[in-house]
Write a structure and sequence with these properties.
alpha/beta; about 10% strand; single chain; binds magnesium ion; Conserved Hypothetical Protein Ylqf, Chain: A, domain 2; binds guanosine-5'-triphosphate
């Protein structure tokens, strides 16, 4: 239990970054493979729509059509999602909010991608004899945003292994979803540098960054502080708090007590407590939470 420093103080003393060599290679490969696809789909996390984006990294994609998919909407705050829809519309961005665990939701990706390709074709004046009706999409995005899950839903089979941890997909993998749709799955890639350190904490909390980078202690404490500040009713209910006007340590100890996280010498087993908190948060048991709002927006 970090008694002296909280997650926020940690941000002031350290710089969170995660861009190992395999991600650099993955970016190079993505650039090489651009010519093989006719649309790029960037999967982000709906709880942090800009912080989980990496569009800047793919600047030399030319005029390639680009669709931003905001996934895990079923874990995000609905009011924040509405605010982001307005923002992206105003920015003239092609986007769609989805929940990859729901097949119907995934169909909206295909619909949107087809519309974008069609508009692109009209704009570039391609005549119908040269237009290839087959859609070849490359799915890119930060680790653990749900890329492989989306591909599996589109293909209707477990074509690419998905897992609840960042860094599952290691190689570029072509998946034939149907006769008119080929999809290229890619390894998750972080931005080379996370400028805003609070974004590093958000990305750890939503598990785009593995726990060993920021450590479960800081990620879990960050989540608890965030939910205490929010006065989250779901957090209160899940751990049977009487009220949320308490400090971080009191909150963690209370969670330890009601979840039976005591070591043999009767002290709290904080590793266990942090694991429970992160797992509960990431599976939505602590409510629908968004970390990021569009610029200038606050929610009532
Ligand atoms: N709640 C929720 N979970 C999701 C959703 N989409 C994916 N997941 C879960 O998120 C985890 C990561 O999914 P993956 O498809 O492996 O993510 P990825 O982007 O391919 O990850 P990397 O290959 O590591 O880059 C899995 O446990 C999925 O079941 C969603 O919309 N909602
Ligand atoms: Mg994957």
């Amino acid at each position: 239990m970090p008694k002296e420093k909280t997650g926020i103080e940690y941000l002031e003393q350290n710089h969170i970054n995660w861009f190992p060599g395999h991600m650099k290679k993955a970016v190079e490969k993505i650039q090489q493979n651009l010519k093989l696809v006719n649309i790029l789909i960037e999967v982000r996390d709906a709880r942090a729509p800009m912080a989980s984006g990496n569009k800047k990294n793919y600047q030399n994609r030319g005029q390639k059509p680009y669709l931003i998919v905001l996934n895990k909407t079923n874990l995000a705050c609905p009011k924040a999602v509405e605010a982001w829809k307005k923002f992206f519309t105003e920015q003239n961005e092609s986007f769609v909010f989805v929940n990859a665990l729901d097949k119907n939701s995934i169909k909206t990706i295909l619909k949107q991608a087809k519309e974008i390709l069609h508009a692109h074709r009209l704009k570039s004046n391609a005549n119908s004899t040269t237009f290839k009706s087959k859609m070849k999409m490359m799915i890119i995005g930060l680790p653990n945003t749900g890329k492989s899950t989306i591909i599996n839903k589109l293909a209707n089979r477990d074509a690419s292994k998905a897992a609840a941890r960042p860094g599952q997909t290691k190689v570029h993998l072509w998946v034939k979803a149907d006769k008119d749709l080929d999809i290229l799955d890619t390894p998750g890639v972080m931005p080379p540098r996370i400028d805003e350190q609070i974004h590093g904490m958000w990305l750890s909390a939503i598990h785009a960054i593995p726990d060993h980078i920021v450590t479960p202690d800081y990620s879990a404490c960050f989540v608890v502080e965030y939910l205490l500040n929010l006065k989250s009713p779901e957090f209160k209910k899940q751990y049977k708090f009487e009220n949320l006007d308490i400090d971080l340590e009191t909150a963690c100890n209370h969670i330890g007590k009601i979840r039976g996280c005591l070591s043999t010498n009767n002290s709290y087993d904080y590793d266990h407590i942090y694991k429970i908190i992160l797992n509960d948060f990431r599976t939505g048991k602590l409510g629908l939470v968004s970390f990021e709002l569009p610029p200038g927006i606050t929610l009532a």
